[in-house]
From TrEMBL, chain B:
Residue ranges of domain Acyl-CoA dehydrogenase/oxidase N-terminal in the record: 13-125
Alphabetically ordered keywords of this record: Oxidoreductase
PROSITE patterns on file: ACYL_COA_DH_1
Pfam families tied to this protein: Acyl-CoA_dh_M, Acyl-CoA_dh_N
Boundaries of every Acyl-CoA oxidase/dehydrogenase middle domain copy: 130-223
InterPro entries linked to this entry: Acyl-CoA_DH_CS, Acyl-CoA_Oxase/DH_mid-dom, Acyl-CoA_Oxase/DH_mid-dom_sf, AcylCoA_DH/ox_N, AcylCoA_DH/ox_N_sf, AcylCoA_DH/oxidase_NM_dom_sf, Mycobact_Acyl-CoA_DH
Coiled coil ranges: none
SUPFAM superfamilies in the record: Acyl-CoA dehydrogenase NM domain-like
Name of this chain's protein: Alkylation response protein AidB-like acyl-CoA dehydrogenase
Length: 374, 383
């Protein structure tokens, strides 16, 4: 066995240990009471500080930052599994945003830290030179946990139209607090007049942007696609369990052919969405990243509606309540499919790119996407 | 947490390397006018094309060299088949033999059958048909009634097979027939035989399909004699063999690329500046197709490792057929044309017409959507 094989094996082992650790922490902390307390749709929103501390002490915020930059240096495909696990468990914290935000910032040459970080959706914020740095101008909305995180990562543009990646300390005051359909905080923040040093304004890495899509929006879509896979698996798993446990007309629901076919259809959507998200995971840091992410967000977003609908139909009235945990998956699916660009927006981008190149170029593009020689 | 055995690992470089040669072959065929992509599909029977593909080394890739094959991996065959599909090549004269009959004979046939038939398959000179369905046995394959009775070194077959694609042009059928009692699970008493279509006792009745093409047939056996050496697998083992054969039949890219050329024509017809509706729907189809390509490559990899991924294969076919069925329905909403089989010079109208009339078969052949969903449900632990 060569040294490289040893290194790969050691890397695999670290990846396994990190995933086990996440599993344990989530199982230990995410009680129904905590999940309910953090659900803005039902109750006052809480920031589960103990859980964040436990996750941060395990180094997880820097999971995808290279070891040379003091991160864990997980493979992106493993980080994707970590994020899916967070989606599966309905983790009410922006760990997924922090993991990819810190990795993107690090890839842009910035010094990543383990503090909670959020990604700002909604396109570039205007910036202008200021005494010893830059000043921002604009209000940002729908920022995940924007009022609770330490810093924000956002797409910015200067007066010449040049795009920038900006990290900024989150302003202490929230202009407005909304929640998505899952009760996760989505805050409005006024950044006008906020200043940052030149160190906090960087060029995004080339692989993370393209086709008019800025980097934060692209990695935001990537992270939501991975989270959706976790929520899709949770929804399907719950429906499979329920169909086998629930008896009607003297037999389990699972024995009815109509139910079997609905579940088979849902499984097809979950498998296709996972395959698309797998591809995007494998393309992190690669020139195919934006297109693969577009495909993953589009395919997972499409699956979300179908699988949530089937999940609820199988669960009957029980699934339509806060008493059954199904809503933790389905309300997230209905939220996440529209965040950082809806499936329709990403489909439109894919369609425009494909039509611009013509029919003959489509097959080589598909082969290259899968890692082949197009 | 339910997970499927799909992975996004790229195909090995030595496998990808096979792409260049198959593309060069297909480009030359197209440029020579040997086929017009939007008019043909993988069921189109073109004996001359298959002979040239065989001579160029693209058939029988996984067959050992001793039987005239090329001893390459299943993944190389996967790359070659998806390139043929994407090009719209007319593969009907070798597809069935290459995909399932040949591999089945290689695994379970007699030495005599292997020596007599496999080298001809590899040369692209020997076409096969599938002898499974019967007039009263479609999805319910265990209800097969065509019977073979032992007579010395021969078996004597009486009965009929139906929906036999290209039976009037193929050299052999691989037929599933009854040789004994079904038993309590209904899966007993079935055996597979290689049927020589040129031998006495076989007659073929054409059945025209929706577009008026003659691909389907009904095949009648009257005291047809087949030597025992043409038996494939043990007597009574037919059900297991056919299940294995269907795993190969169901998981390939032919389950979602049947109308790929319509998608190509659609993109060209829309042009470089789509409106929003055209862009959204085209992007949706491309996202679905990309996921399917990833899934089918994963299944090919599992099959190559000797794993038979029943559920994943069924998922590829079910999701894939759904995609194939949707393409013409979406295409007609994006570009307002009237489909036609005789719209000379308008490739999009012609492709749309051809696919519209072929699409119902996509969710029937190789196992109906409903049968497939039953297979998936079993894999999910529901039955």
């Amino acid at each position: 066995m060569s040294r490289m094989d040893h290194a790969v094996e050691a890397g695999d082992m670290v990846d396994g240990i990190v995933l086990d650790q996440v599993e344990r922490l989530l199982a230990q902390h995410l009680t129904p009471a905590l999940l309910a307390a953090c659900d803005g749709a039902v109750d006052a929103t809480a920031w589960p500080a103990d859980l964040w501390t436990a996750l941060a002490e395990s180094g997880l915020p820097l999971a995808l930052v290279p070891e040379a930059e003091d991160g864990i240096g997980l493979a992106a495909t493993t980080a994707a599994r970590l994020i899916r696990r967070c989606g599966w468990a309905a983790l009410p914290l922006p760990l997924p945003e922090t993991v990819v935000g810190a990795a993107l910032w690090s890839a842009a040459g910035g010094d990543a830290n383990a503090d909670a970080l959020s990604l700002v959706p909604g396109g570039p914020v205007r910036i202008a030179p200021h005494t010893d740095g830059f000043v921002l101008d604009g209000r940002v909305a729908q920022v995940p946990w924007g009022g609770s995180v330490a810093s924000l990562l956002l797409d910015a543009v200067d007066a010449t139209g040049e795009p920038h990646l900006v990290r900024i300390a989150a302003p202490g005051t929230i202009r407005d607090t909304h929640h998505n359909l899952a009760g996760e905080p989505r805050d409005t923040l006024d950044l006008t007049g906020c200043t940052v040093s030149t160190d906090e304004v960087r060029a995004a890495p080339g692989w993370a942007t393209g086709a008019g899509v800025p980097a934060v929006e692209a990695v935001g879509a990537w992270v939501r696609a991975q989270q959706m896979v976790g929520a899709l698996e949770s929804c399907l798993g719950s429906a499979l369990d329920h169909a086998q446990e629930r008896q009607q007309f003297g037999r389990p629901l699972a024995k009815f052919q109509a139910i079997q076919h609905m579940l088979a259809e849902a499984a097809g959507h979950v498998a296709a969405a996972s395959a698309a998200a797998d591809l995007a995971a494998a393309c992190w840091g690669d020139p195919r990243f934006v297109l693969a992410t577009a495909i993953a967000k589009a395919r997972c977003g499409e699956a979300a509606g179908h699988v949530a609908a089937i999940g609820h139909q199988i669960h009957g009235a029980m699934g339509f309540t806060q008493e059954h945990p199904l809503h933790r998956a389905t309300r997230r699916l209905w939220s996440w499919r529209d965040e950082f660009g809806s499936d329709a927006l990403w489909q439109e981008r894919i369609g425009r790119a494909v039509c611009a190149c013509g029919g003959a170029a489509l097959w080589p593009m598909l082969v290259r996407l899968r890692g082949g020689a197009g | 947490m339910h997970s499927f055995r799909f992975s996004a690992e790229p195909l090995p470089p030595e496998v990808e390397a096979a792409r260049a040669s198959i593309r060069a072959f297909l480009d030359a065929e197209r440029e020579a006018g040997h086929f017009v992509p939007h008019r043909t599909s993988w069921t189109t029977f073109d004996a001359a094309f298959s002979r040239r593909a065989g001579a160029a080394g693209f058939i029988g890739l996984t067959v050992p060299e001793a039987y005239g094959g090329h001893a390459r991996s299943g993944l190389v065959r996967f790359v070659v088949t998806e390139e043929m599909l994407a090009a719209g090549a007319p593969c009907g004269a070798h597809w069935i033999a290459d995909r399932q009959s040949g591999p089945q004979i290689l695994r379970h046939g007699t030495e005599a059958a292997k020596r007599a038939i496999l080298p001809r398959i590899c040369r692209g000179e020997c076409a096969f048909g599938i002898g499974m369905s019967e007039p009263n046995s479609g999805s319910d394959l265990a209800a097969v009634r065509t019977r073979a009775v032992r007579d010395g070194d021969d078996w004597v077959i009486n009965g009929s097979k139906i929906w036999t694609t290209n039976a009037h042009q193929v050299d052999y059928l691989l037929a599933l027939v009854r040789t004994g009692e079904p038993g309590p699970d209904r899966h007993g008493g079935l055996t597979q035989f290689i049927v020589d279509m040129a031998a006495p006792g076989v007659t073929v009745r054409p059945i025209l399909d929706l577009s008026g093409h003659h691909e389907f047939n009904e095949v009648f056996f009257t005291d047809y004699r087949v030597p025992d050496a043409m038996r494939v697998g043990a007597e009574g083992d037919g059900w297991n063999l056919v299940t294995e054969e269907l795993a190969f039949e169901r998981s390939g890219p032919d389950r979602f690329l049947s109308d790929y050329r319509l998608l190509v024509e659609l993109v060209d017809r829309i042009g470089p500046e789509p409106d929003r509706f055209q862009a959204v729907e085209t992007g949706r189809m491309v996202a679905q197709l990309t996921a399917l390509l990833g899934m089918s490559a994963s299944v090919a990899r599992l099959l190559d490792q000797g794993i038979v991924p029943g559920v994943e294969a069924a998922l590829v076919k079910d999701v894939g057929n759904g995609f194939e069925r949707a393409v013409p329905e979406i295409a007609r909403r994006l570009v307002p044309v009237e489909p036609s089989l005789s719209a000379q010079g308008d490739a999009f109208r012609e492709a749309l017409g051809g696919v519209t009339l072929r699409a119902p078969s996509f969710t029937l052949r190789g196992g109906t959507r409903e049968v497939l969903r039953g297979v998936i449900a079993r894999g999910l632990g529901l039955r």
